[in-house]
């Protein structure tokens, strides 16, 4: 039997060597003292030690891979015990402990108060003792700032906070990425805001463009009349009434646009679609001196629709105006307006069709005409159809165009019937 440090190697009955742990104790009797020797086969202990070492090594590797540092802040002695990972971040060469004041000195001055208040909160015996904080650490050697995320728990002794034990992780890369993403988000938001501003401005311009042009035309008529030797008061009155009417229309349109943009709430009424079409036609024939053959095919018993009158009127005026402008080169311009009932996806809707006999639209243009700012006109803004489609959709319908270059352009839109 060989003996080292209470460990023995012995041979069992198969002549195999076994490691034994021995423990000794003396037993005193009245006659003489005895020594009690207990032998234990050491295999299990060795296996347990091996497993512990392996698990410690795995933990160390996992901690290293996750970039975790471990700290233990002892309140009573005002010391922070830490590991190598943390001492590296604080740029201290001791991997055992530092005073709490030294520990705090490296924390960014702006982050100290919030970190301290999180600790105070965690120290409340009524709470769950959890500590969670993010703060910056300025490396005293190279002045490089790193972001640290710390998590821990307060341990109480006799109801008093005794230690704060936890882990830290360097989250600088994550913070930098977040910052970069935030900058990108801010930029996108600012571009979006600019686009919204541009669209709002062009929507306002679209509302004002036509009435301003009409006011100017009426003004010129009035001036022309005044240059006559015998100005006709009737003509002057008509021109000035035209000016006033157009200016009021522009004001009303702007007011409604602003109300819609601010509230985003749509006020709809039960209305006769044929009446709205007739009113819009009156406005257009007032504005345009152009002659065209009007073919009206309005279904007389069409049920009422539920919509916002001004918005639908605006769409109609825009479609009529586009049609009239498209037909200016045509010898016998003709505008056909039809209303009927239409079933779409099993739902009954009112359908309006506006067809002109202008040059029509080729497929390349059809694909783009509803895009904001798309125009083929020298003085066009290209917002009319984009706004019209948005308005019809807001009213629960749809607006589309037929691609047809033989018979001109045909626009359709639907609106829901009033229930
Ligand atoms: P704008 O009238 O300012 O150009 P719109 O959005 O109302 O803006 O129209 C966009 C474009 O669609 C027009 O520039 C024109 O090319 C085309 N378009 C619209 N209606 C017709 C039509 N009835 N016939 C031919 N082209 C049309």
How is the main sheet built?
Answer: 6 strands, antiparallel
Q: In one word, what is the shape? A: elongated
What spatial order of strands do you see in the largest sheet? 7-6-5-10-9-8
CATH fold call of the largest domain: Heat Shock Protein 90
Q: Quickly name the level 1 CATH class of the largest domain.
A: Alpha Beta
Could you write a compact summary of the structure shown?
This protein has 419 residues and is of the alpha+beta class. It has helices at residues 43-65, 84-89, 100-105, 109-122, 172-227, 233-263, 273-287, 309-326, 363-366, 384-394, and strands at residues 2-4, 7-11, 17-28, 33-41, 68-74, 79-82, 97-99, 130-138, 145-157, 160-170, 269-271, 293-298, 305-307, 334-344, 347-356, 399-402, 410-416.
Describe the structure.
The chain is an alpha+beta fold. It folds into four domains: 58 residues, no CATH class; 104 residues, Beta-Lactamase (2-Layer Sandwich); 87 residues, Helix Hairpins (Orthogonal Bundle); 148 residues, Histidine kinase-like ATPase, C-terminal domain (Heat Shock Protein 90, 2-Layer Sandwich), CATH 3.30.565.10. Helices cover 44% and strands 29% of the residues. It contains ten helices and 17 strands. The strands form four sheets. A six-stranded antiparallel sheet has the order 7-6-5-10-9-8, sandwiched between helices. Strand 14 and strand 15 form a beta hairpin. Helix 7 packs across helix 8. The longest helix has 56 residues. The termini are far apart. The mean pLDDT is 87. Bound molecules: adenosine-5'-diphosphate. Adenosine-5'-diphosphate (ADP) binds next to helix 8 and helix 10.
């Amino acid at each position: 039997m060989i003996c080292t440090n209470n460990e023995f190697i012995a041979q069992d009955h198969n002549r195999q060597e076994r490691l034994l742990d021995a423990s000794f104790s003396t037993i005193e009797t009245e006659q003489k003292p005895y020594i009690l020797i207990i032998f234990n086969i050491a295999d299990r202990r060795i296996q347990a030690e091996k497993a512990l070492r392996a698990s410690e090594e795995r933990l160390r590797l996992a901690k290293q891979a996750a970039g975790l540092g471990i700290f233990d802040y002892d309140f009573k002695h005002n010391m922070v015990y830490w590991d190598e990972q943390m001492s590296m971040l604080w740029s201290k060469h001791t991997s055992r402990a530092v005073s709490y004041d030294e520990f705090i000195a490296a924390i960014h001055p702006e982050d100290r108060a919030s970190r301290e208040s999180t600790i105070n909160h965690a120290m409340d015996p009524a709470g769950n003792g959890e500590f969670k904080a993010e703060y910056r650490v300025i490396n005293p050697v190279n002045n490089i700032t790193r972001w640290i995320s710390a998590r821990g728990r307060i341990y109480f002794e006799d109801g008093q906070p005794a230690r704060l034990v936890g882990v830290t992780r360097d989250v600088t890369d994550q913070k930098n990425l977040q910052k970069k993403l935030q900058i990108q988000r801010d930029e996108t938001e600012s571009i979006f805001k600019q686009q919204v501003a541009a669209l709002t401005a062009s929507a306002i311009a679209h509302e004002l463009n036509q009435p301003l042009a009409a006011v100017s035309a009426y003004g010129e008529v009035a001036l022309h009349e005044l240059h006559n030797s015998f100005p006709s008061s009737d003509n002057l009155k008509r021109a000035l009434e035209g000016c006033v009417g157009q200016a009021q229309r522009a004001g009303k349109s702007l007011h409604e646009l602003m109300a819609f943009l601010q509230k985003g709430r749509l006020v709809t009424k039960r209305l006769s679609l044929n009446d709205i079409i007739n009113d819009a036609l009156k406005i257009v024939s007032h504005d345009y001196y152009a002659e065209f053959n009007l073919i009206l095919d309005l279904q007389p018993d069409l049920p009422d629709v539920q919509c916002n009158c001004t918005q639908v009127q605006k769409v109609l005026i825009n479609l009529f105006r586009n049609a009239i402008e498209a037909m200016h080169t045509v010898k016998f311009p003709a505008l056909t307006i039809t209303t009927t009932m239409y079933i779409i996806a099993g739902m009954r809707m009112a359908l309006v069709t506006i067809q002109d006999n202008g040059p029509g639209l080729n497929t390349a243009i059809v694909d783009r005409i509803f895009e904001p700012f798309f125009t083929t006109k020298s003085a066009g803004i290209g917002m009319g159809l984009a706004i019209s489609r948005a308005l019809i959709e807001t009213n629960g319908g749809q607006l589309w165009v037929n691609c047809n270059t033989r018979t001109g352009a045909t626009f359709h839109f639907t609106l829901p019937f009033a229930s």
